[in-house]
Amino acid sequence: MAETIFVEIPEVTGDADDDKHKGWIVVHSMSFSVERMIDMNDLSSNQRSHANTRFNQIELVSSLGTASNNLMSAVVSGKSYREIKLHVCRPSKHSGNVLEAYSNWTLKDAIIDRYELQVDNGGTPEEAWAIAYSKIEHEYKSIDKKNGNLEKVNTFKWNLSTGKAE
């Protein structure tokens, strides 16, 4: 199966060779969660509106590659990136050989917060790493059934520092 998740980090070159994502990092899996910290023993309407929301880091798994040492260095140095982009892609309806991004993530004021390497005997080394951020945007696109093109459906933007949508 072709790679379908790509990450672009400024000054970090990855192994992707997809036409639209050359030099990006190829990612095997991505995990994101946000949760409302509600006490199940007290489901009052007051708690629902004032409970804290917790955004978790975006966690990624990729193969050891050209970006690996830069990812480790970013953790050690605490380097901050103005913007990191993630694209989740699928084959184009017009040409199965072309990938189109339909789930686009932008992480602002981001840092690589964790890096782990796992190697099994005879297996491909895999790395798990996490990105922390102060602002997050997610744009979702859906296929227009009339023309087969991807069209923006909606966007989520949140500033963790202010606790407000942007």
TrEMBL record:
<dbReference type="InterPro" id="IPR008514">
    <property type="entry name" value="T6SS_Hcp"/>
</dbReference>
<dbReference type="InterPro" id="IPR036624">
    <property type="entry name" value="Hcp1-lik_sf"/>
</dbReference>
<protein>
    <recommendedName>
        <fullName>Major exported protein</fullName>
    </recommendedName>
</protein>
<dbReference type="InterPro" id="IPR053165">
    <property type="entry name" value="HSI-I_assembly_Hcp1"/>
</dbReference>
<dbReference type="Pfam" id="PF05638">
    <property type="entry name" value="T6SS_HCP"/>
</dbReference>
